[in-house]
# Entry
Amino acid sequence: MNHTPDPTTAGNGGYFDPREAAALLDQTTQQARRQLQPSPPWLLVIRAVMVLAACGGIWLSVRGQHPYRGPTTADIPILVAFIVINFAATVAVRKRATAGVLGRSQLRPAEIAVAALAWVAAAVLLAALAASGVSYGHYATTVLIIPGLAWAAITAARAWWRSCAVGLAVAIVGVVGLFAGPAGSWAVAGIGLCLVLLGYAAAVTRQQRA
Amino acid sequence: MADDTLNPVIHVPTRLKIVATLAALPDGDALSFTRLQDMIGLTPGNLIIHLRRLEEAGYISSEKTKNGTTPKTTVALTKSGREALDAYTQALRDLLGGL
# Structure
């Protein structure tokens, strides 16, 4: 039988040292996982620190309020800036990581719509509660419950269990905040969301190293 | 030599990089040709040659879609390709463990 050499092995005489192959396989795998990761650990850690600083800062400024009046006019731009920067950075990094990726791991338009509507519903509910004089309408963490549960439901339907756990954890932070009082809910939001993000970063890191 | 137990389709630097990169995608996902080219750092012509070899072996599948007027090619690792990579990785471990 004639053996026709594979022209695509040309390069260094066709010999590829197994040790080099092992190193290349390891390096390529790690690199690809990093480049394709939509929620890299470094971004999650930065977001964790940012949420702790933003919510913690607001807690420090409102904890002495009797009666509770909410974030001051100086706090609101900081909160808005945090939300905008967090959202923009998350979207930009995700977009770069998922560029050219198609398939089951991508969110469907309907899922994105449900996730977005959950935030709208939460804001409407918060406003309605506040307008009716229900104190939970002034709690920072109340707004986390519906989006957290919505995300958990969306991701559970896809069997994305790690993301589902994150959604549930966010909803739990929302519920825990209901017991902390209006000022204390800012501290619960800061610490709770920081821990959720750090936990997610640890899980992603472990998966990348596996 | 003992290293002729290594799968000759995968045991080529460029094809090893291609297969390892596609294996980093979740099951059911595909990568566009352009993104794969960007990640591997090859010219289009060179990449096509190696993709054809992998496709002939049944390790990858490619699909051409039309995004408006722009044709787009996506590439994914097949089940057979994942199994071949797993077997190759194990063979590499066995070989290097014995060295």
Summary: The longest strand of chain A covers residues 101-103.
